[in-house]
Amino acid sequence: MLEPLKGLFRGARGGPGGMPPMANGGRMPGGRSFEPSVASRSSRGLEEFFVQIRDTSGLTILDLGGANQKNLSFIMDLGHRLCSEDFVRILNEAFGAEDGADQTNPGRIEYFLKQTLDYPPGHFDGVLIWDTLEYLNPVLLNAVVERLQHIVRPKAYMLAFFHSDDKLETVPNYAFRIQQVNSLEVTQQGARTPAQLYNNRSLEKLFSRFESVKFFLTRERLREVIIKA
After folding, report:
1. Residue ranges per domain, the chain?
2. Which of 63, 64, 115, 163 could make an S-S bridge to 87, C-beta 3.0–4.6 Å?
3. If we measure between CA atoms, which residue out of 127, 134, 184, 117 comes closest to residue 158?
4. Which residues contact 49 (CB under 8 A, 6 or more apart)?
5. Which pLDDT does position 99 carry in this prediction?
6. b/e per residue 66-80 (b: at least 16 CB within 10 A)
7. What would the 3-class secondary structure string for the chain be?
8. 126 bridge partner residues
């Protein structure tokens, strides 16, 4: 059964079982080892994402969290196709895994976009961005958002997570597995220094080229954002 599904995993070269590698090699800042922790939680942002696509089938969804069987099976069971990109792993390959790596080199930016978001215009009906954008500096971030706008169809929906505490020096590095239309299995795999933290106003500015932006604030102080193209 798994063999025919391999073609759906584009650019997904994570660790064993499709799990992406831990940020900082599974260590906290300062070299301390980190034991991954797993929790289940509800997600209003995820529920809103699926509400918008529930009455259709045969859509193409992009998952930037890397390939994993849970997300693949869930999306396929809804009658959609899933493409996966291990965004953070390729970010580390393109710019280095160390926090504060230079993300302004035009050649490196083009390489990164080629490795992660090299799709035709209007290819996707939805994108699960998760928390990946917090790790991009403004130059790379603007290039990524511009590319996302290019590869999604009009009226497509994207789901992104941002930490709401703008005083954090490091943020947890998560992996997200879909359990139900409104719940996630969240695995903290380490911590990483964010390139920038965002409030509602800065996120509205970031996605100003899109039709609308909607926010949900969670108990974990994560800001869940639905972006409509």
Report:
1. 35-228
2. 64
3. 127
4. 126, 128, 157, 159, 226
5. 61
6. bbbeebbebbeebeb
7. CHHHHHHHCCCCCCCHHHCCCCHHHCECCCCCECCCEEEEEECHHHHHHHHHHCCCCCCEEEECECCCHHHHHHHHHCCCEEEECEHHHHHHHHHCCCCCCCCCCHHHHHHHHHHHCCCCCCCEEEEEEECHHHHCCHHHHHHHHHHHHHHEEEEEEEEEEEECCCCCCCEEEEEEEEEECCEEEEEEEEEECCCCCCCHHHHHHHCCCCCEEEEEECCCCEEEEEEEC
8. 61, 157
pLDDT of residue 13: 38
| pLDDT for 166 | 72
Q: Determine phi and psi for 207, rounding to 5 degrees.
A: -105, 30
Q: For residue 223, count CB atoms less than 10 angstroms from its CB and return exposed for 0-12, middle for 13-18, buried for 19 or more.
A: buried
**CB-CB contact of 167 with 59 (8 Å):** no
Q: How far is CA 39 from the centre of its chain?
A: 18
pLDDT in the model for residue 98:
65
Q: What is the pLDDT of residue 25?
A: 40
Contacts of 46 (CB under 8 A, 6+ apart): 159, 178, 181, 182, 183, 184, 224
| C-alpha to C-alpha distance for 70 and 56, rounded to whole angstroms | 21
Q: What is the CATH number of domain 35-228?
A: 3.40.50.150
> Which segments of the chain have a pLDDT < 50?
1-32, 34
